[in-house]
Amino acid sequence: MDIVHRTHRSDACLREIDNTEDLRTDDMEDLRTDDMGDFRSDDMGFTAAECLRDTVVRSTVAKIDLEAYAHNVRMLRAHIPAHIDMLAVVKANAYGHGAVHIAQEAQRCGVRMLGVALLTEALALRAQGITLPILILGMTPIEHMDCARRARAAVTLCDVDAVRAIPAGDVPLIVHLKVDTGMGRIGAPTIEEAVAAARAVHDRADIVWEGLYTHYARADEADASFSAQQHQRLRAVCDAIRTEGMPIPLVHAANTAIALTLPAYAQQMVRLGIGTYGVYPSQHTAEVMEGLRPVLSWETRIAAVKTVGPHTPISYGGRYVTTTTETIATLPVGYADGLSRKLSGRWHVVIQGKYVPIVGTICMDMCMVRIPPSMDVRVGERVVLIGCMGDAHIAVDDVAAALDTIPYEVLCGISDRVPRMIGTP
Known about the structure:
By secondary structure, this protein is an alpha/beta fold. 28% of the residues lie in helices and 24% in strands.
């Protein structure tokens, strides 16, 4: 497996926005560096970058199965009508999976386009040689539109004022108009405003109008009535724009949930996110199509083992106190890595194919588990945080349920300091 210690490069790209004449891939070689600085010392004889390049310097890693990702894309492709294109959503570092390698795999899988949330995410992909069309799904500041032009990244616009505020440029700006049909987030809220924005885009020679889209707010629910209302509103907007003599090059609306349950609402392209990572948006959607495979597993190794007597407090605040002689193992993973402090004393990991409880408060960098008397464990032994070992399995959905949140948040919460090991089993 390839080891990726840093997969989201927005900080380097941000520094380049004001200093780069042309953001073409050929001219962005400096953005490919590790940004480690020169850590060389006459006494040490190596740089930090050299140390990181070939060695996993942490025992806590997230393993990314690219074959599982490709399998999921193939499964979804087979489920979606053949005439509908696919956009792979790789925002938020590909939901914590590593944006560059996932984008490369998506390109190999034949997707039409990539979706990100931020201009900096688009720039990071371009800096790493990603050539697929990219759509920025969030809002891009007007002052950075020229940067988006040069990076060949499509921006989302929602109203006439934004279109008019964009400075003219020699390089065409690629634009998708966003329509709010019920999400209440961004997008033209009325037919009249959508038509006016479309007219403003259509009439500018320096803008390439590539598409129009909306987002379903309750697509993962079994009751599809609200999605049906949104679908009708989108059709009304499109009809009004076309009546004004403006053809719409591409209309897209569906996320994974709609692609699974109501592909007829997808229009001409689906934006596939969570499903490509092997996670279902909801139980309802899981019942529609089985067989998606998790792409990410999360593991660590035991850092220390000790036997303590009864009445021994463990971790901050002494919230767990042993009742008898117990074996306590320390794991080098904590809330700074994405293991939520809210799981303290009420969650578990897997060691030797058995569930082992977390005890005491989860620390920033470490946590402790109680080893049953029947187990003999050693320093360096493998521990599963998300994934399988033997018959024991911890799914990201299980962690999300324990935290009263959604799998998206758990995956995105695995921090950048956890190395991603990219490959196939």
